[in-house]
Amino acid sequence: MSNETHLSFPEGFLWGTATSAYQIEGAWNEDGRGVSIWDTFCRKRGKTHNGTTGDVAVDHYHRWQEDVEIMAQMGLKAYRFSIAWTRIIPQGSGEVNQIGLDFYERLIDALLEKGIEPFPTLFHYDLPQPLQDQGGWPKRETAELFGEYAATLARRLGDRVNYWITHNEPWVTAILGHLVGEHAPGQHNPFAALKAVHNLALSHGYAVEALRANSTNKSAQIGIALNLTPTYPATDSEKDKEAARRFDGQINRLLLDPLLKGYYPEDMLKLFKLFFPKILDSDLNLIAAPLDFVGINYYTRLVAKHDWKVPLLQAMQVKPQGSEYSQMWEIYPPGIYDLITRVWKDYQPKSIIVTENGVPVPDTLGADGQVHDEKRISYLYRHMQQVHRAIADGAPVKGYFVWSMLDNFEWAFGYQMRFGLVHVDYDSLKRTVKDSGKWFAKVIQANSIPAESVKVEVTDVSAVTAMAKMSKSVEKPPQLTRSSMASMVIHQETSPIVWAGVGAAAAVVLVLVIWLLVRRSEGITNYE
Question: In what order do the strands lie in the sheet with 302-306?
Answer without folding.
Answer: 231-233, 302-306, 315-318
